[in-house]
From TrEMBL:
The lineage of its organism: Eukaryota, Metazoa, Placozoa, Uniplacotomia, Trichoplacea. InterPro entries: FAD/NAD-bd_sf, Flavin_mOase, Flavin_mOase-like, Flavin_mOase_5, FMO-like. This is Flavin-containing monooxygenase. One of its GO terms (molecular function) is N,N-dimethylaniline monooxygenase activity. Its cofactor is FAD. GO terms for biological process: lipid metabolic process. Its EC number is 1.-.-.-. Acts as a Baeyer-Villiger monooxygenase on a broad range of substrates. Catalyzes the insertion of an oxygen atom into a carbon-carbon bond adjacent to a carbonyl, which converts ketones to esters. Active on diverse carbonyl compounds, whereas soft nucleophiles are mostly non- or poorly reactive. In contrast with other forms of FMO it is non- or poorly active on 'classical' substrates such as drugs, pesticides, and dietary components containing soft nucleophilic heteroatoms. Able to oxidize drug molecules bearing a carbonyl group on an aliphatic chain, such as nabumetone and pentoxifylline.
């Protein structure tokens, strides 16, 4: 079986590796001369991914790593984009992926082959550049995996007066660093992660930065209780507690860091109704006065901007639009996959339900809550390759359409209406859902009988991707050790000054022994509760 993979970013690399595991013959088409996709920084406008020079990841390395290749323990818990690329290079080297990638290869067209009705095959038209020579060819593949991502086509807003503004205007996609903005008066539009990061960075160098937001946002930290990554504590328990309770807990916790009312950030929606904005620095920059929160823009003049609250800021030099991205498939006709209002019909966000054959799959066209896209894309690829090799079967078209509609209702019940929320998925729920289909979802009850400490770690610790390599197709012998080493890996990277070893408190030892003794009944309850998690979330959302 020959499979074409479009893109050599995180999703493309994971898809390539999973194809090799299943004995599939893959070839990756990558338009650039490097791997890493959006994580590759470039000085040139229009080159590289979406990252700027100082970008660091918003999820900890233990949550974002691939399931059978954890991030090295000496890497920082929240990696700089250089380290992310280095990790991808190590992953590609470990599994010998480079030889299957065609760099400088642009995909022009993907369409059904002449014998598609019978075979399900696809024609892929590409142009490959070698030196000064570019050749264009069409090749036929049994299946295609689209891994081109959804953060490459910037969405620009439309404000009255944008065409008369005399200063600089750019999308955050084209922002590289603070150079050239020194002493400017800057308005940053949006309150997603990119907008907030750009505003915070510029606030160290500009005379004044204004952050314009339509709805406000709850600001989540990278660092949680005790200085450990917040996602260690968040990504497991958000699914074990009904959303009606969790949103109250989170609101109290986030307001304990700083009062969102006083800082002009509090939105009208609850804490889980929007993609998380993650920043430890924003409240500090606000109290320093270097960032001022403003309402939505109503009108732009030659050098001034008016806001919805009636205020006006003058002598504005630069506007940066952190307003997100559109997604689509420019190399495919809309009759193959139609994208409308930033959404399209995809079963499990992967397979078009109206195709005769399950031979076209999307990887990474999701927006995770409570986790990272890397292991989620890997899980998608694991299932896709099982479908390609007929080890897993898709349900009927009616069942797939019903599932798509159900997920849309869930999104509408939980999230505020926005183009960025059309692909929103919960990390643990989505991982469990696909793991069930693959047969790699861990059974905590069974683990509790054979290894109580490991079961305790799985249930009450962060849901690391390695948990999905304990069983099922292509298990990994190092999974147990990787799960146990989660805390040690975090500490090893940050404790660069060694302290004298302290004696562990006796009460803590007693507590751990009691928890271990209770692990089997706890595991059983969690096992039983697994099927009711989604129902609780939906009911609470309604």
């Amino acid at each position: 079986m020959k499979v074409a993979i479009i893109g050599a970013g995180a999703s493309g690399l994971a898809s390539l590796k999973e194809c090799l595991d299943e004995g599939i013959e893959p070839i990756v088409f990558e338009k650039e001369e490097y791997i890493g996709g959006l994580w590759k920084y470039s000085e040139k406008i229009g080159k590289g991914g979406t990252v700027y020079r100082s970008t660091i990841i918003n999820t900890s390395k233990e949550i974002m790593g691939f399931s059978d290749f954890p991030v090295p323990k000496d890497f920082a818990p929240f990696m700089h984009n250089r380290s992310v690329i280095e990790y991808f290079e190590l992953y590609a080297k470990k599994f010998k992926l480079h030889q299957y990638i065609q760099f400088k290869t642009y995909v022009h067209d993907i369409r059904p082959a002449e014998d598609y009705i019978k075979s399900g095959r696809w024609n892929v038209t590409i142009s490959h550049t070698e030196g000064t020579t570019t050749t264009r060819t069409t090749q036929t593949f049994d299946s295609v995996m689209i891994c081109s991502g959804h953060h490459w086509d910037p969405r620009m807003p439309s404000f009255k007066g944008m065409d008369v503004f005399k200063g600089k205007q750019l999308h955050s996609h084209d922002y590289k660093d603070h150079q050239g903005f020194e002493n400017d008066r800057v308005v940053v539009v949006g309150i997603g992660n990119s907008a907030v990061d750009v505003a915070c960075e510029l606030s160290h160098h500009c005379s004044q930065v204004y952050l314009s937001t339509r709805r406000g946002a709850w600001i989540f930290p990278r660092i949680g209780f005790g200085g450990t990554p917040f996602d260690f504590q968040f990504n497991r328990f958000v699914n074990m507690i009904p959303i009606s309770i969790m949103k109250i807990i989170l609101e109290k916790y986030l307001n304990s860091r700083f009062d969102h009312d006083k800082y002009g950030l509090r939105p009208t929606h609850h804490t889980l109704a929007q993609q998380q904005t993650i920043s430890d620095e924003l409240p500090v920059r606000i109290v320093c006065g270097s960032i001022k929160i403003k309402d939505d823009i109503t009108c732009i003049g030659e050098h001034d901007i008016k806001f919805a609250d009636g205020s006006t800021e003058t002598n504005i030099d630069t506007i940066v639009y952190g307003t997100g991205y559109k997604f689509g498939f420019p190399f495919m006709d809309s009759s193959i996959i139609e994208v409308k209002d930033n959404t399209c019909n995809l079963y499990k966000y992967i397979f078009p339900p109206d195709h005769m054959h399950a031979t076209l799959a999307m990887v990474g066209f999701i927006q995770p809550t409570g986790g990272a896209i890397m292991p989620m894309a890997e899980m998608q690829a694991r299932w896709i390759t099982q479908v390609f090799t007929k080890k897993c079967q898709l349900p009927s078209q009616a069942e797939m359409l019903a599932d798509i509609e159900k997920k849309r209702r869930e999104i509408a019940d939980i999230y505020v209406k926005s183009p960025r929320h059309t692909m929103q998925v919960d990390y643990l729920e989505f991982m469990d859902e696909l793991a069930d289909l693959i047969g790699c979802k861990p059974n905590f009850l069974s683990i509790a009988f054979t290894d109580p400490k490991l079961a305790l770690r799985c249930i009450f610790g962060p849901c690391t991707p390695s948990q999905f390599r304990l069983c099922g197709p292509h298990p990994w012998d190092g999974a147990k050790e990787a799960i146990r080493d989660t805390d040690r890996n975090f500490t090893a990277a940050i404790r660069t000054r060694q302290l004298k070893q302290t004696v562990e408190h006796k009460n803590r030892k007693v507590l751990m022994l009691l928890l271990e003794a209770a692990i089997i009944p706890i595991a059983y309850l969690c096992y039983l509760k697994g099927d009711t998690i989604k129902a609780n979330i939906i009911d609470a959302g309604k």
